[in-house]
């Protein structure tokens, strides 16, 4: 044999699956391994290759290869083939024994095929494959239990889980599975004492002499039946015997979180991470608790740690979702959906998705998410989500039915009683019933502050403000909780007792300085105390402009960057190749933008002349200044070289050391400062012989009688390649209630405010221009450039949204990439334009065969870390061309 098959087995034993797969390709293609002459040997080699593919997670290839092996097995006479249909021992790594007398285990091969189908979420195919296996090993029974449970065949799942425990009573996942499927502790324990032969029994003392396993079974059954108090007692007993058991600590923290003991659960999760800092199990639950406590510093660190451990796990996507909820609800929702795609049985993914959909006022979709979570395993959170979803779209009967179902499932739960009260409180006729349920919840659990606050809200609805205040103050004597202070502050603010309200907001912030409700309430209260309507729009909150040369308060300047030279109504978009976004904290406006270029050239200094012998920085009124300058491919024109313009110049020169940077101003007041910074100053009247590939317009609209005309003039100095970038203010967004805004948020209508009219008309000038490199080439018809030069593209809107996302991230000292991950050659760009049918002109071609080639960028890591995805995934998709 050309390739000894035992060498593949050796590679497999050492976990070298890549080498095993490559060597397997040699083996199966060897002329000495003939399917006709030796089908048994052919089957063996295929199984070895399938094992390598299986471990490489190439499940489709593994299935195909295993089935080929079984086909060859069927051609071998059974008496001489050495084929076995019995299961292998658990220590066997491969379906082929490496002994001198080789044998093939068909059952093991079918198990691997079923396991591959399971990994691909093809449950029916996996079950069908396993049906022909009559004698099953322990791992086969575990797989069959999971397959039947995923298919909804709970009786079959129970039978297989019990068979697992007969074979080995320490299969803890079988214990948890049986408890969740409704088996009693007695039923589960009885499976321990019966051997797999079903003919003899062993004593429980032999299996579990100290009874810790029995206590574990009882604890899991308590959790599954919502008897959370009993579960905590049993877990506490087990923790005395196993004090640093990460699994027990995690299970305890989960239960504490369910019943609202959030501080205890957080401390428990912290202990878990101190013992095992690399665990991922239930860390998304920990993230959700930190979010509830508004502890964003610890939440951010947790997510960073989880990403460094394994960024592909569902728990990590849920934690990312929770982190992004405050910053960008759309991104948060997308991460929740990713967690479900990774693991369709991951309950926290459905819970956070439902919560975000509720916040987005999409209760019907939220109900679907909560119902999916409940179908997997009912708990209080899925009941609460369903009830609030039903109430949000007016299905009171369904909400009441669901709340009663929760109460019946958890008769000793104060939270379930409160849930019924919430439904009754939703109607004026049911408020008396709601009061009784809230009071019952408080009798059952006197420290349940959620019921106390709900009862106070009920008093407020019916005008009993004094009763609400008395109730909350009574609870404050025993529980110094931030939520009680916030509620009291809201009550006092509503009754114009502003000083009392202030003291309670301050008390809440002393307990938790990150409490969002307290911070927002305090902001509103301060306006009330100044006699300002807190709901009125504040015109002075936006970026007003003072300095005619561009020196303006720019804290929010990047927050609204229109998609340069692109109109949604037009048929042509403008793209530019974006290489780097760099963020450094040592600058106030730490924003850097670098654009890709195709060539560079040596440039000469600016020489200006005019009929009156004026220099470039000097002019008489009305005199146009002519500049004779060789403009290079990377030269930058900054219109409005104020604070932002100077920072852009500094970062641009880091990327392009040999470039010229021209700073255009209205006056000569700051020209000496610009020259010291290496910026060549020019007055706005200056005319250049050529045009620039890169122009940034950051001049303010103040003291300009026609701001839109200023933009047109600046745009006329751009050659259509590279980028023209216009920075604006967030003032045009039609949002004045502390609400969330994004790039698609509505803007103030024209005519409503002279201030916003100026900005909107200026933006429209840019949006209507619709030019880009591809359009520039089309107009020229032939271009002296290499057609195979690779370009890395990104849509202007996506570049703007990524810039904002990086700014919000505040990740100092980092470099990020911005691109659409679909690099194209120049020729491919023009071919796609032609295929789109949207252009009358025909491009003739690129004429050069020399010059540098480009590079292919990929920003997958940036997307995961920043939590950003482009709205336009590729140039082809934007044009509507399938590619």
From TrEMBL:
Domain of life: Eukaryota
Renumbered ranges of TPR repeats: 482-515
InterPro entries cross-referenced by the UniProt entry: NAD(P)-bd_dom_sf, TPR-like_helical_dom_sf, TPR_rpt
PROSITE patterns xref list: TPR (PS50005)
A Gene Ontology cellular-component term: anaphase-promoting complex
Region annotated Disordered, chain positions: 531-550
One GO term (biological process): protein ubiquitination
Biased composition (Acidic residues): 535-550
Keyword Repeat: no
Keywords associated with the record: TPR repeat
Gene3D superfamilies: NAD(P)-binding Rossmann-like Domain, Tetratricopeptide repeat domain
PANTHER family named among the record's database cross-references: ANAPHASE-PROMOTING COMPLEX SUBUNIT 7, CELL DIVISION CYCLE 16,23,27
Protein name (database record): Uncharacterized protein
Natural source organism: Brassica oleracea var. oleracea
């Amino acid at each position: 044999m050309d390739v000894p098959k035992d060498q593949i087995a050796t590679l497999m034993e050492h976990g070298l699956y890549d080498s095993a797969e490559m060597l397997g390709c040699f083996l199966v293609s060897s002329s000495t391994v003939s399917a006709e002459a030796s089908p048994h040997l052919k089957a063996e080699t295929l199984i070895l290759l399938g094992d390598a593919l299986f471990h490489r997670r190439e499940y489709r290839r593994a299935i195909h290869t295993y089935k080929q092996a079984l086909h060859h097995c069927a051609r071998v006479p059974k008496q001489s083939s050495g084929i076995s249909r019995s299961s292998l021992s658990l220590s066997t790594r491969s379906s082929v024994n490496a002994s001198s007398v080789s044998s093939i285990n068909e059952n093991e091969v079918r198990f691997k095929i079923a396991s591959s189908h399971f990994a691909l979420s093809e449950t029916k195919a996996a079950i069908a494959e396993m049906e022909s296996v009559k004698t099953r090993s322990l791992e086969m029974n575990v797989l069959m239990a999971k397959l039947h449970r995923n298919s909804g065949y709970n009786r079959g799942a129970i039978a297989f889980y019990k068979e697992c425990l007969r074979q080995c009573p320490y299969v803890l996942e079988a214990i948890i599975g049986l408890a969740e499927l409704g088996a009693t502790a007695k039923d589960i324990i009885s499976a321990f004492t019966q051997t797999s032969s079903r003919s003899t029994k062993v004593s429980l003392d032999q299996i579990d002499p100290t009874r810790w396993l029995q206590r574990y079974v009882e604890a899991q059954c308590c959790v599954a039946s919502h008897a959370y108090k009993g579960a905590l007692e049993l877990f506490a007993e087990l923790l005395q015997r196993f004090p640093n058991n990460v699994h027990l600590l995690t299970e305890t923290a989960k239960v504490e979180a369910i019943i609202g003991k959030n501080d205890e659960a957080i401390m428990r999760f912290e202990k878990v991470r101190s013992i095992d800092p690399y665990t991922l199990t239930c860390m998304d639950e920990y993230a959700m608790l930190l979010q509830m406590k508004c502890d964003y510093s610890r939440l951010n660190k947790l997510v960073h740690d989880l990403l460094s451990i394994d960024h592909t796990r569902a728990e990590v996507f849920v934690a990312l979702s929770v982190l992004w909820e405050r910053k960008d609800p759309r991104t948060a929702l997308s991460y929740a959906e990713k967690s479900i795609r990774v693991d369709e049985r991951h309950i926290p993914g459905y819970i956070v998705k439902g919560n975000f959909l509720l916040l987005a006022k999409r209760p019907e979709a939220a109900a679907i998410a909560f119902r999916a979570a409940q179908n997997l395993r009912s708990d209080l959170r899925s009941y609460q989500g369903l009830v609030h979803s039903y109430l949000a779209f007016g299905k009171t009967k369904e909400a009441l039915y669901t709340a009663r179902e929760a109460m019946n499932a958890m008769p000793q739960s104060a939270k379930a009683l409160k849930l019924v009260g919430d439904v009754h409180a939703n109607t004026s006729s049911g408020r008396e019933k709601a009061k009784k349920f809230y009071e019952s919840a408080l009798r059952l659990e006197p420290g349940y502050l959620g019921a106390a606050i709900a009862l106070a809200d009920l008093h407020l609805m019916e005008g009993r403000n004094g009763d609400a205040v008395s109730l909350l103050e009574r609870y404050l004597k025993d529980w110094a909780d931030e939520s009680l202070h916030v509620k009291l502050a809201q009550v006092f603010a509503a009754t114009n007792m502003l000083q009392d309200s202030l003291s309670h907001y301050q008390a809440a912030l002393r307990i938790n300085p990150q409490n969002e409700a307290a911070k927002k309430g305090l902001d509103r209260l301060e306006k009330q105390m100044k006699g300002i309507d807190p709901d009125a729009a504040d015109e002075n909150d936006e970026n007003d402009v003072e300095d005619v040369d561009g020196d303006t308060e720019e804290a929010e300047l990047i927050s609204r960057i229109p998609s340069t030279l692109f109109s949604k109504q037009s048929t042509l978009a403008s793209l530019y190749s974006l290489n780097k976004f760099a963020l450094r904290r040592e600058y106030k406006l730490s924003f850097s933008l670098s654009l890709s270029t195709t060539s560079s050239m040596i440039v000469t200094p600016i020489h200006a002349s005019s009929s009156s012998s004026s220099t470039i920085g000097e002019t008489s009124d009305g005199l146009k200044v002519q500049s004779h300058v060789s403009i290079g491919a990377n030269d930058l024109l900054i219109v409005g070289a104020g604070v932002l313009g100077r920072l852009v110049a500094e970062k641009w020169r880091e990327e392009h050391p040999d470039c010229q940077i021209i700073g255009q101003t209205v006056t000569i007041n700051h020209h000496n400062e610009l020259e010291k910074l290496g910026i060549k100053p020019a007055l706005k009247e200056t005319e250049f012989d050529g045009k620039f590939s890169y122009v940034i317009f950051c001049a303010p609209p103040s003291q300009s009688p026609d701001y839109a005309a200023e933009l047109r003039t600046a745009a006329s100095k751009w050659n259509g390649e590279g980028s023209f970038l216009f920075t604006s203010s967030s003032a045009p967004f039609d949002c004045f209630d502390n609400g969330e805004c994004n790039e698609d948020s509505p803007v103030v209508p024209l005519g409503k405010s002279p201030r916003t009219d100026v900005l909107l008309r200026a933006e429209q000038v840019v949006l209507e221009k619709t030019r880009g490199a591809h359009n520039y080439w089309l107009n020229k018809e032939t271009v002296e450039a290499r057609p195979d030069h690779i370009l890395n593209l990104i849509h202007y809107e996506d570049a703007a949204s990524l810039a904002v996302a990086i700014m919000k991230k505040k990740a100092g000292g980092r470099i990020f990439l911005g691109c659409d991950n679909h690099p194209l050659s120049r020729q491919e760009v023009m071919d796609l334009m032609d295929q789109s049918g949207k252009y009358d002109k025909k491009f003739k071609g690129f004429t050069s065969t020399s010059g540098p080639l480009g590079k292919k960028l990929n920003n997958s890591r940036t997307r995961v870390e920043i939590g950003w995805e482009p709205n336009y995934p590729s140039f082809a998709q934007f044009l509507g061309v399938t590619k």
